[in-house]
Design a protein that fits this description.
The complex is a heterodimer of chains A (about 130) and B (about 850). With about 130 residues, chain A is mainly alpha-helical. Chain A is built from five helices and no strands. Chain A has helices at about 5-20, 25-40, 50-70, 75-85, 90-130. The mean pLDDT of chain A is about 85. Chain B is α+β, with helices and mostly antiparallel strands and about 850 residues long. In chain B, about 35% of the residues lie in helices and about 20% in strands. Chain B starts with a helix and ends with a strand. Chain B contains 27 helices and 32 strands. The chains are: A mainly alpha (about 130), B alpha+beta (about 850). The interface between A and B is large, with 41 and 41 residues.
């Protein structure tokens, strides 16, 4: 049942990128990380941060592939690669690595931040009890 | 582990967010670079024109239909001329937005706002020349209610309508890489562009070469090497002779260096640091080679079809996107003009209508003078003296900004009534010098382009151009449907107050030094329907100095003129295809003159030559003798000839080598050739203060014992012509072997040596097309200069029959988008010397569906 969250994430990444821009990727991933952390540990069968990153990378790869189906993406890549002094595959690789790392780091950060807060909040009464 | 994970992910997230939003070093923000929807990748989705599109444009009087043909040429069908120019602005912006802005920023000295401090020197040159000031004055002097004033505004409206409504995906790649947004267009930008044309084509300062040479070999020798009149005459205005004339005079011998001769060249270098640096560092054949435009026309009596034929072949810097943009403007009953425009210019610059076709070459007249001024305070002048009275200097502060708007420099500029004034020369000899230049004076070339589109005869064409076109002076060739052909060197030619021409620095403290008006139209070099039945110009001297006296200045290259005249003389039944072939004709009159002289010198091998050199000379002569003197792509001997010519230039003009640039130990040429052949030494670099043209070298051939032949670097030996030519041939063979391998091993094939390099406007390597092998070489009609960055920018042939027919090509494509199939799609056709047949419909209905249709509607 992990497929559905991944598909929903991919849709959110694609729509966000298309309508809002690249920064939709960390926002969506951050929101997902927070949402996941707030669920009880037993319910956490939703994908972890790394899978979120892979989903973001796959989404951008699909968007690029969709462009390439009707536009001269390869021609552009050859030109840009020469401008940047890199082989064209480096550009493609960067185009998937960038959203992957962005989404992974945002999801992991969101999840860790909420988990830490909840952990410190639940640890506080016990500490109070001990001091009493 | 959780705190570590949180910290690590937080750091990575912050770093990526920063890299996504902010540029790092030369890299643009990664987010906008890599985003597949709205980032740089989106440029690919905007590469091709949609089958149909609509847009609203403020100010339109009615709908405008723009039909793009299969070559990407927009045919604009409008109800009024203002709407046609509005639409032209829109479609040019749609295809060439970045180019529009870059060219204007270069002209107005605002490149730093795109590229930052690295462009400051270029901006300073433009502003210190007074280019922005001149554009402002021209705009202020223009009648905004005139048709040209309305067209100027309409064009700006069209450009801005596109910018305002531009979809995000259409933002050109260059803006994304630079991290900037397009600037809105203003009418003055078109005037900046015209000034830039003047900067490119009217920066003719023969005093630079002549005064630099005088500083090494004296004034008499310098005047002889850099004469006001070309030694080989086949002028634009036919002189009635059926062959070129060689006005061979002995060159004055090298003399004592003239003290202070460098003052004039110092002024040129200070006012034009970028341009004069380019001139000084050019190869011997480049300095004139790049200015290699040609045009010719054939009268009905000498054309096979019985109609007048016209060929246009302007040579300029080769760039992607091209300097030209092809377009067709139709307003039923009023306007029907086809040709090329420069992005930013509301008008067709070179082209044709149903009755007249026209094209230009550069006249190359000297229209720039310097004046030594007397000021009230040498350190901080506020006034300058004229005829004993003090006049206030105009003061103007120029501010340079970077892309963020921060001030990165300021200049306080001073102007006299003549033009910009600045302190020039070395410390101790520095003085205040002002400059007068026709480019900076009132004119309205855009009105000329707009009005000439209505001409119905060559007479009307010439009258319009004479009225409006001032600078840069052009050899304007026209042919009409009635069978007339005509040429006139059109522009402003100042009348100097004395017979000293334009190569002296005059006393600015007297008004008697000022220009005394302009030459009258009747004195312009010109010809209408000459008896010879054809007209040709190739940047040669426009008039025969034996027939028309007076100073025109400039520096002229005769070889192409000799070649095209020879071709036209030999063909009394010229076809359209012959006109096309001439444009890339591989024949060279330069080679025809020098090759036999090399071979003759080899036959008279100098006494005392070593056996090894004698064998080498015999081999070089045999190889050179095998050449048919044609610079075809497959020829394998031009390499040797060019190497020998280069050696000949270095050996002959050794007296002009810069002080300190001579080799430390003088060596006889043959010994040096030996060392080069063995691979132990590179040829001695010979940086000269100036290099006389190959026409001067041709002139020298007649005097076998001239002291110029002596290589002063060879102590105790006095060489004559044959010794130097033989040594050059031997060294040329060694050079060719070193650079290109053995003669028949493939490396000498011309296509592997000579290339056109069509660079991107910003010099971005991936967006240019380099190493394009081409036919032609020095002295041919398509010379392709040494670094390959200049060449035929637009080739056109027009047949002025009952129905105008035309063929053309330029080295690039209509789109400025590097991903577009229309970016460089014409390059192959251009490279092979072919032309595309042009589609010239009278109405949109004749176009059918076209490749793409754009409908522009008035904004309600």
């Amino acid at each position: 049942m992990m497929i559905l969250p991944l598909v929903l994430l991919a849709v959110a990444f694609a729509a966000g990128t298309w309508w809002l821009g690249w920064w939709a990727v960390p926002l969506v991933a951050l929101a997902y990380g927070v949402w996941r952390a707030r669920r009880s540990p037993d319910a956490r069968r939703a994908p972890a941060a790394l899978l979120v990153g892979i989903t973001a990378a796959a989404t951008w790869a699909l968007l690029l592939a969709a462009s390439a189906a009707s536009a001269p993406v390869a021609e552009l890549a050859r030109g840009l690669a020469a401008v940047m002094g890199q082989p064209a595959p480096v550009l493609y690789l960067a185009t998937v690595l960038f959203p992957m790392l962005l989404a992974w780091s945002a999801a992991a950060f969101g999840e860790s931040a909420v988990t830490r807060r909840r952990a410190s909040a639940s640890a506080e009464p016990a500490a109070i009890r001990r001091s009493a | 582990m959780r705190p570590v994970r949180a910290a690590l992910s937080g750091v990575v997230l912050a770093g990526l967010a920063y890299a996504g939003a902010r540029p790092i070093g030369p890299l643009p923000p990664l987010g906008s670079l890599l985003d597949p929807a709205g980032g740089l990748w989106a440029v690919a989705r905007a590469a091709e024109l949609p089958a149909s599109a609509e847009a609203s444009v403020p100010g339109l009087g009615g709908d405008v239909r723009v039909v793009y043909d299969r070559r990407g040429v927009p045919h604009i069908f409008a109800a009024s001329e203002a709407d046609a120019y509005r639409a032209l602005g829109y479609v040019v912006a749609r295809d060439r937005l970045f180019q529009l802005e870059l060219q204007v920023r270069a002209a107005s000295g605002q490149l730093t706002e795109l590229a930052g401090p690295r462009a400051l020197d270029m901006d300073r040159e433009s502003r210190r020349l007074g280019m922005p000031r001149a554009a402002e004055r021209k705009l202020a002097a223009a009648d905004s209610a005139s048709p040209s004033g309305r067209a100027l505004r309409a064009y700006a409206d069209g450009v801005n309508a596109y910018i305002d409504a531009m979809p995000a995906r259409e933002l050109p790649a260059e803006y994304r890489l630079l991290g900037v947004r397009p600037r809105r267009w203003a009418p003055i930008h078109s005037l900046h562009l015209m000034n830039r044309m003047g900067y490119t084509l009217a920066y003719i300062a023969p005093e630079l070469d002549r005064s630099a040479a005088a500083g090494r070999v004296g004034a008499a020798a310098a005047a002889s090497l850099f004469p006001a009149d070309a030694p080989i005459q086949e002028p634009i205005q036919p002189n009635g002779q059926r062959a070129p004339r060689f006005d061979v005079r002995p060159l004055a011998p090298p003399g004592t260096p003239e003290a202070g001769a460098g003052l004039a060249s110092a002024a040129v270098r200070d006012f034009f640091p970028t341009a004069s640096l380019a001139q000084r560092t050019a190869q011997p054949d480049d300095a004139r080679g790049w200015m290699a435009s040609n045009n010719w026309a054939v009268a009905p009596a000498r054309s096979r079809s019985g109609h007048a034929l016209l060929a246009g072949d302007p040579h300029l810097e080769l760039t992607l996107p091209s300097i030209w943009y092809e377009a067709h403007l139709v307003v039923p009953g009023r306007l029907d003009v086809y040709g090329v425009t420069i992005p930013g210019a509301p008008g067709i610059v070179i082209g044709f209508n149903r009755d007249v076709s026209w094209t230009f070459t550069n006249t190359g007249a000297d229209v720039l003078d310097f004046y030594r001024e007397t000021v009230d305070d040498d350190a901080h002048p506020t006034r300058y003296q004229v005829d004993g009275a003090w006049r206030a200097l105009e003061r103007r502060v120029e501010t340079y900004r970077d892309a963020a708007g921060a001030v990165i420099g300021t200049d306080t500029l001073l102007f006299t009534h003549r033009g910009p004034m600045r302190r020039t020369g070395e410390e101790g000899r520095a003085r205040w010098v002002s400059m007068r230049w026709t480019v900076l004076e009132p004119s309205n070339e855009l009105a000329a382009f707009q009005q000439v589109a209505h001409a119905t005869t060559v007479a009307e064409f010439q009258a319009t151009m004479a009225e409006h076109f001032r600078s840069p002076a052009q050899n304007m060739l026209a042919a009409d449907r009635g069978g007339s052909i005509a040429i006139r060197s059109t522009g402003r030619f100042p009348v100097r107050p004395d017979s000293l021409g334009g190569m002296v620095e005059r006393d600015g403290s007297v008004s008697a030094s000022d220009w005394r008006g302009d030459r009258p139209l009747a004195e312009y070099p010109q010809s209408l329907n000459p008896a010879q039945g054809y007209l040709a110009s190739a940047n040669q001297q426009p008039v025969d100095p034996q027939q028309v006296t007076g100073y025109w200045g400039g520096s002229y290259d005769p070889w192409r003129a000799l070649r095209i005249n020879a071709l036209l003389r030999a063909d009394s039944s010229v076809t359209v295809d012959a006109m096309r072939r001439y444009q890339t004709d591989p024949g060279s009159e330069r080679a025809n003159l020098f090759v036999p002289r090399f071979l003759a010198a080899a036959r008279r091998a100098p006494a005392g030559m070593s056996a090894r050199d004698a064998a080498s000379l015999a081999e070089a002569a045999r190889l050179l003798g095998e050449w048919d003197r044609r610079y075809t792509r497959e020829n394998t001997r031009a390499v040797l000839f060019e190497a020998a010519m280069r050696e000949l230039v270095e050996r002959t003009w050794d007296e002009l080598i810069e002080p300190g640039a001579e080799p430390a130990v003088a060596r006889p040429p043959s010994a040096n050739a030996d060392r080069v052949r063995r691979g132990d030494a590179a040829p001695v670099p010979a940086r000269r203060v100036a290099t006389p043209s190959s026409a001067a070298l041709a002139q020298l051939l007649a005097d076998s014992a001239s002291p110029w032949w002596d290589d002063t670097r060879t102590a105790g030996v006095r060489e004559d012509r044959d010794a130097i030519m033989a040594a050059s041939l031997v060294a040329g063979l060694a050079r060719a072997r070193r650079d290109a391998g053995e003669p028949d091993a493939g490396g000498w094939t011309w296509s592997r040596v000579r290339h056109a390099n069509v660079g991107h406007l910003l010099g971005l390597p991936g967006f240019g097309r380099h190493g394009v092998s081409v036919q032609g070489g020095p002295g041919t009609l398509s010379p392709s200069s040494g670094n390959g960055a200049h060449g035929a920018s637009w080739r056109m042939v027009v047949e002025m029959g009952p129905q105008v027919a035309a063929w053309a090509v330029y080295p690039g494509g209509q789109s400025g988008n590097p991903a577009s199939s229309r970016y460089a799609d014409r390059l192959r056709t251009w490279q092979e010397g072919r032309l595309d047949s042009l589609v010239v419909p009278r109405a949109a209905s004749e176009m059918g569906a076209g490749a793409s249709v754009l409908t522009l509607r008035p904004r309600r």
